[in-house]
Design a protein that fits this description.
mainly beta, Porin, 262 residues, 6% helix
Length: 262
């Protein structure tokens, strides 16, 4: 993974250094996008086919975050900083939400449902290189740094009822971006692309879950404590290994451009 990011950074630096900068006549572009987000690495996981004897799931000690699908929506601003139109700086925000739901048939004949959600709201800043800025079809590559804010929750319903909130936490990451702008009119285009998002490159940590007194079946061995707030717990803690929160973000949308680069 480190080699992948090294190559992307090198390409950006070489291409941006090769152009002549001029800040007097910038060009702005604003994009509104949405699409499908695919969890990979430790973000992706599936519920067990059957429940343990207690009928519960030990969410606190899972090796993954138990989500299998996601979606995204975002807005990005792009500012061209050179006379050729190739070098671009970017800033934006995007909301990704991931989930998984599974129903279990119980010996009583009733159904027990677990619904898991994990949300990531991100602010990004970075640089892009446009390969053919004067052409109708303009491929680009880019790299972003991201501040990621996590939230979400787990709910049980059916023959059991409980709610576990995911702790609000912040992590810092990096996104590799590639796509294409297709101009339909002078200042209007559609954009297609994909990002490889490492959401917790920095800031990993391990915290204790918040609990309250009361019986629960949200633990593998339920007792007298009930989890009400569950941390990300993506850092090392003895035998517990670091988790990598990574996803692929496929997106499509529209772009509006303002100003001229001469």
């Amino acid at each position: 993974m480190n080699k992948f990011f090294t190559v992307i950074i090198a390409l950006l630096l070489v291409n941006i250094a090769a152009v002549k900068f001029s800040y007097s006549q910038p060009k702005w572009q604003f994009s509104l996008t949405g699409g499908y987000s695919m969890p990979v690495s430790d973000l992706k996981g599936s519920f067990a086919d059957t429940l343990a004897q207690t009928g519960g799931i030990d969410f606190k000690n899972q090796a993954t975050y138990l989500v299998n699908k996601g979606y995204n929506i975002g807005i990005t601003g792009r500012y061209t900083v050179d006379t050729s139109g190739a070098a671009v700086i970017t800033a934006g925000m995007v909301y990704n939400w991931f989930s998984q739901t599974k129903d279990y048939s119980r010996p009583s004949g009733l159904t027990r449902t677990f619904a898991n959600k994990l949300n990531i709201f991100s602010f990004t800043a970075g640089a892009e290189y446009d390969m053919q800025p004067t052409k109708k079809v303009n491929p680009f590559v880019g790299l972003e740094i991201a501040a990621n804010f996590f939230s979400g929750g787990i709910k049980g319903s059916g023959d059991t009822t409980f709610t576990i909130d995911r702790s609000s936490e912040t992590r810092f990451g990096i996104n590799a971006n590639a796509g294409v702008n297709i101009k339909l009119k002078k200042d209007f285009s559609i954009i297609l692309g994909v990002k490889y998002c490492v959401n917790n490159l920095f800031g990993k940590q391990h915290d204790a879950a918040t609990t309250t007194t009361g019986n629960t079946d949200t633990e593998q061995n339920p007792g007298t404590s009930s989890i009400t707030s569950l941390p990300l717990n993506d850092g090392d803690l003895g035998a517990i290994q670091t988790k990598q929160i990574i996803h692929l973000q496929f997106y499509a949308g529209i772009s509006l451009s303002f100003g001229k680069v001469k």
